[in-house]
Write a structure and sequence with these properties.
Number of strands: 12
Order of helices and strands: HEEHEHEHEHEHEHHEEHEEEH
Structural class: alpha/beta
Radius of gyration: 20 Å
Distance between the termini: 30 Å
Helix content: 25-40%
Largest sheet: 6 strands, mixed
Strand order of the largest sheet: 4-3-5-6-7-12
C-alpha cells in the first residue's frame, strides 16, 4: 500500500527502490506504467503465494469450499484474489469474498455473513490487528466452529500471536520457506542470534539481507571515486545495474531480476501454529507443507 503511491514519487527523483517485502502483484505487473521503472523486489510475487495457499487447501486438506477476507489494501486484496482464482480453477467453490477495515474490532457481522455459505476454510491474508480480532472471534460464530483458518506472511509474526492468543493454535500461514534457503542461511541465523540475542522476528529478514547485498554489489559496479575521495553513484546507472542482476547467490536462493523488477527465487511453505509457538512467541521454522 505504501509502495504504490511512494515508488513513483521516488523514481521521479531518480531514486531506485528495492523492497524485501512488497509482494502485491501490481507492483511488477507489465501494465503498471513507467513510473514504476525504478522498482525491484527480492521477495516473492503473490501470484505464487496465493496459488500455493489454494493448492494447500485442496491438495493437502482436501477441502472444496472456501471464503476470503481482505482489508482493502493492495497486498491483501490481490493476494486473496489470486487464491480465489486458483481455488476455483482447481475445482473448489468460493462462498464469499468479504472485506473489513484495518481498524475494525468487531468482526462478527462479516463472519456471520460468511457463515451462511458454510465454508470449510477461510483465507485472510491481512495484517496483525484485524487478523487477531478475526482469529479470536471466528469460532464464536455459529457454523464456523470447525472451519480451518489460514493467514499469510502479513500476520506471520510473534506480534500476531500476542494479538490472537491461544485461538491461533492450529491455524495455518503461507510464508517464505526458510528450510529451502541456501546453505549460508544457517550461518546467518547463528550470527544474528549472537549479535542480537534472538532469532529474526519477521519473515522477510533474509530477503532484506539479499536486497542490501544486491544494492552493495550494484554500487561497487557503478560507483566512481573522485580524486578527493568523494564517491559518486549515478542514479540511472545504479538502477540499470540492479535490473541487470543475474544469478546472484543470495540467502534466499538465486536472485535474478527480470525487466519488471521481480528478482526472487520464490519458495513458499505453509506453516501450522502450535501451542509452543504461542507460548514462546516464536514463529514455526519448518513448513507443515510445501508444494515442491
Amino acid at each position: 500500500s505504501e509502495a504504490k503511491p511512494g515508488v513513483p514519487i521516488l523514481w521521479k527523483a531518480g531514486i531506485v527502490t528495492v523492497s524485501p517485502s512488497n509482494t502485491a502483484p501490481y507492483l511488477t505487473d507489465p501494465k503498471r506504467g513507467p513510473e514504476y521503472n525504478g522498482y525491484l523486489r527480492t521477495c516473492h510475487n503473490d501470484k505464487v503465494q496465493g496459488a500455493v495457499a489454494a493448492e494447500f487447501a485442496i491438495k493437502k486438506l482436501g477441502l472444496k469450499k472456501a471464503a476470503t477476507i481482505h482489508d482493502g489494501s493492495v497486498y491483501a486484496e490481490q493476494l486473496q484474489a489470486v487464491f480465489a482464482e486458483t481455488f476455483k480453477k482447481m475445482g473448489g467453490t468460493i462462498t464469499a469474498q468479504e472485506a473489513v477495515a484495518p481498524t475494525d474490532t468487531d468482526m462478527r457481522p462479516v463472519l456471520t455473513k460468511i457463515a451462511t455459505g458454510k465454508p470449510e476454510f477461510i483465507y485472510y491474508p491481512i495484517f496483525i490487528a484485524a487478523g487477531g480480532h478475526i482469529t479470536r472471534q471466528v469460532k464464536e460464530v455459529g457454523g464456523l466452529e470447525k472451519v480451518k483458518l489460514m493467514g499469510a506472511d502479513g500476520i506471520f509474526s510473534p506480534d500476531f500471536y500476542k494479538a490472537a492468543g491461544e485461538t491461533a493454535i492450529g491455524m495455518f500461514h503461507s510464508s517464505p520457506d526458510f528450510s529451502a534457503f541456501a546453505a549460508g542461511y544457517k550461518d546467518f541465523l547463528a550470527k544474528h542470534s549472537k549479535k542480537y540475542g534472538e532469532k529474526p522476528l519477521a519473515p522477510f529478514h533474509a530477503h532484506g539481507y539479499d536486497a542490501a547485498r544486491i544494492i552493495f554489489a550494484a554500487i561497487e559496479k557503478v560507483g566512481k571515486k573522485a580524486p578527493d575521495g568523494t564517491l559518486y553513484i549515478g542514479r540511472k546507472a545504479l538502477r540499470d545495474a540492479l535490473y541487470a542482476t543475474k544469478n546472484f547467490k543470495g540467502l534466499t536462493g538465486n536472485v535474478s531480476c527480470d525487466q519488471y523488477g521481480d528478482c526472487a527465487d520464490p519458495k513458499i511453505g505453509v506453516y501450522i501454529t502450535t501451542a509452543d509457538n504461542v507460548k514462546k512467541l516464536v514463529m514455526p521454522d519448518t513448513p507443515y507443507w510445501k508444494p515442491y
